[in-house]
């Protein structure tokens, strides 16, 4: 493998809660297990008590990873940001690779990203493209292509998340210096984290290749158009504007678009999301 001896070790950070699909969770862990450049640490934070099926998957993969997996269980449901901060403190390596418990890494995801970071040590937060696919049929839907260069990422971030959260690799030291994830936010904590990393001095990049397959279900679209998510969407953009990162129009335009998506019927939301926003 190219430059393998020069690559830095990395930790994988993921969380899981009782509502996850055990089959999807197993597929996610399997995609980590078969990486061409494997992690030397897999940190899994359990967001409260899990069901028996998920515990079985954890036990199976704990054995497969041969002692590399660290499992931390929160006593009660703490939310995504709480899990991320808990795992952030546990991870031993400087480079932390985020992973969702229902998505699938391509087998060379880690190798591609760690080679890039070895060649660009100034980069402290790195993502890639994702391939969205229909969870029921397995059919590909669209590729989400965020900007790839630092300045373009910063400009894009004023209105929309400039990374696919499922693809992130970032430096632990910088993440801790900005206070990690904001546990006061109910939703959209990943976007807030990305912006604060940029404010904190992160040099950013996205690899222009699909490295993760992102599972799309009916629940994904429903979450995007419910009022709880809409309120969080607006609250985070208001917070980002107060930090001085974005302007009034950067706040107004995406918030107005989100409100429209909330108001229109669900099938229209799905059409806009799949056919227009991904072009």
TrEMBL record:
EC id: 2.4.-.-
UniProt keyword annotations, A-Z: Glycosyltransferase, Membrane, Transferase, Transmembrane, Transmembrane helix
Manganese as UniProt keyword: no
Pfam families: Glycos_transf_2 (PF00535)
One Gene Ontology term of the molecular function aspect: glycosyltransferase activity
Protein name as it appears in the record: Glycosyltransferase, group 2 family protein
Residues annotated as transmembrane: 251-273
Organism superkingdom: Bacteria
Family annotation (InterPro entries): Glyco_trans_2-like, Glycosyltransf_2, Nucleotide-diphossugar_trans
Gene3D superfamilies: Spore Coat Polysaccharide Biosynthesis Protein SpsA, Chain A
Similarity annotation: Belongs to the glycosyltransferase 2 family.
SUPFAM superfamilies: Nucleotide-diphospho-sugar transferases (SSF53448)
